[in-house]
Design brief:
Elements (H helix, E strand, L loop, with lengths): L9 H11 L6 E6 L5 E6 L2 E6 L2 E7 L9 H9 L1 E6 L5 H7 L9 H5 L3 E2 L8 E2 L4 E14 L2 E13 L19 E3 L5 E3 L13
Antiparallel strand pairs: 1-2, 1-5, 3-4, 4-9, 5-8, 6-7, 8-9, 10-11
């Protein structure tokens, strides 16, 4: 089968892309709203793509009613945000927080999550998260009416005890069990891992 992406609808392109490009990491963004409500929401059009400077990118689309998502509104207002990483223990809370709540409702309260103070940015992090990146807005790219790309410079990382080895800075496979987004309501774990032969850089 051959499909020209320009010849299919945007909805069909979406289904193709999220079904084929899997699993995707999840950026669980936490922010304060202008009226002081703690907000968190997951985005799976997300990855890191540079270490010097350390940059992440998140694709954010509008809410179902066409309004700007609260996370993006807070990022644009403050130029800062926190990316929390999702593991098996926080998967259910992340999924609940993906619901479109009113701006006056805190996803933290709806999911039983706890806010924790950041060090370098004004927004809260998710205390229960396996790891969190405090980020400063590096660049905002207006791609179209249905997608904006947020480039964030990662300033500081928080990690649950045991996730990062303090000497080697390597990540513990035993203590870090992230999940990935597939499509619709489907996710996956990273429990099955394997090595391939050959000498590759660490």
């Amino acid at each position: 089968m051959h499909l020209k992406l320009a010849d299919v609808s945007a909805h069909e392109r979406y289904k193709l892309l999220i079904g084929l490009v899997i699993p995707r990491p999840i950026a669980w963004i936490s922010t304060w709203s202008a009226n002081g409500v703690a907000n968190c929401a997951p985005f799976s059009f997300f990855n890191v793509f540079s270490e010097d400077p350390p940059l992440c990118v998140i694709g954010i689309n509008p809410r179902s009613d066409g309004a700007m998502k609260h996370s993006l509104k807070n990022i644009r207002r403050t130029g800062e945000f926190v990316v929390n990483l999702v593991d098996e223990t926080t998967a259910n809370a992340m999924h609940v927080s993906s619901k479109e709540f009113p701006e006056t409702v805190s996803e933290f309260e709806q999911t039983g999550l706890t806010t924790a103070p950041a060090v370098l940015v004004q927004h809260p992090r998710i205390a229960e998260a396996a790891a969190s990146f405090e980020c400063r807005l590096y660049q905002l790219l207006e791609i179209s009416g249905t997608r904006q790309l947020v480039l964030g410079e990662m300033l500081l990382v928080h990690a649950r005890e045991g996730v990062i080895d303090p000497q080697s800075k390597r990540i513990s496979e035993e203590h870090y069990r992230p999940i990935g987004r597939l499509f619709a309501d489907r996710y996956c774990t990273t429990r099955q891992r394997f090595n391939l032969p050959g000498d590759l850089p660490a």
